[in-house]
Amino acid sequence: MAGKETRVATPAVRVSGVSKRFRDGGTHIEALKPTSFTLQRGEFVAVIGPSGSGKSTLLTLLGGLQTPSAGSVEIAGADTSALSGRELVRLRREKIGFVLQAANLVPYLRVREQLELADRVCGRGFDRQRAEALADELNMREKMSAFPGDLSGGERQRAAIMRALYPRPALLLADEPTASLDSARAFSVVEILAQEAHRENVTVVMVTHDERMLPYCDRVLRIEDGVLSE
Ligand SMILES: Nc1ncnc2c1ncn2[C@@H]1O[C@H](COP(=O)(O)OP(=O)(O)OP(=O)(O)O)[C@@H](O)[C@H]1O
Ligand SMILES: [Mg+2]
Q: In terms of Cα–Cα distance, which of 136, 137, 193, 140 is closest to 169?
C-alpha cells in the first residue's frame, strides 16, 4: 500500500533562472531578464506587456523553439536543454500546441487536412468527433474544406487555434490569438481557451495586448523591458 505519502504533482512548466540575450550588431539585447516561475496543469495564464517587451521570446522559450541563454525550462518534468534535438521535436509534437503570431497554416492543405497532418505525424487516426466539436465551438464548420488562402484573417486564426487544440496538448502557447478578431469573436476564443484549460487540464499561456481578456485568466504575467512580474 502506498500509505499516506503526499505526492506533489510535477508542475506543467518550471522556469528556473531563465534569460534570453540576442546579439544586435556589437551590443546585446537582453530580451528576457532572469526569471523563475512554475505553471500548473489546467492554469490559464495571460502574458501582457508593451511591444518589444519580450512576450514572444518568453513563449518560444516555453515551447522549446529557442534555447535560453541561461537557466532551464522543464516541461512536464523534462529539462528541455537536456534533450536531444530529436527528443525535443517529439516533446513539442506530443505535448505542446502553438498558435503563433503569424498563423502559419500549411498553405496547400484544407483546414481538415491541417488537423489530419498532426495525426499522420503521430501515427493516429482522425478523431472526427474532436474535430467537429472544435469546428462548432470556433464557428468553423463551413470552412473545414477551405484552403488558408480562401479564409479571412480571423478564420485563419481560428483554424490555427483549432489545429493547436485538436491533438489535446498538455501545454498550449498562443501568441496574440485574438489579434485579428472583432471583440465578440475575441471573447469567444478566449472563453474556449479558458474552457480547454479548466475542462481538459491544459496549461494555456496566452500573450495578449487586450486587458479586457484578463478576467478570463487565472494568472497574469506582466513583462516590461524583459522584466517579468506577477
Ligand atoms: N531573433 C532575434 N534577434 C535579435 N533581437 C530579437 C530577436 N527576437 C526578438 N528580439 C528583440 O527582443 C526584444 C523582445 O522581442 P519580442 O518579440 O519578445 O517582443 P514582444 O513583446 O513579443 O513584442 P510584440 O508585442 O511587438 O510582439 C525586442 O527588442 C526584439 O527586437
Ligand atoms: Mg510578439
A: 193
User: Which among 111, 225, 64, 100 has a CA at the least distance from the CA of 174?
Assistant: 100
- The runs of H, that is alpha helices, within the chain are 55-62, 85-95, 111-122, 128-137, 153-165, 183-200
Angle, helices 153-165 vs 111-122, to 10°: value is: 20
Mutate-to-test residue for ligand 1 from 19, 21, 22, 61, highest number of ligand atoms within 8 A of CB: 22
What distance lies between CA 180 and its chain's CA centroid?
A: 17
Give bridge partners of residue 107 from the DSSP assignment: none
CA distance 199 to 1: 31
Give 10-residue mean pLDDT values along the chain (230 residues): 55 94 88 96 96 94 92 92 90 88 81 86 84 91 93 87 91 89 86 91 93 94 96
Global pTM value: 0.89
* Ligand 1, atom 30, residue with closest C-alpha: 52
Domains (range + CATH), the chain? 40-58+96-229 (3.40.50.300)
Atom of ligand 1 nearest to the CA of 23: 4
Q: Which atom of ligand 1 is the closest one to the Cα of 209? A: 25
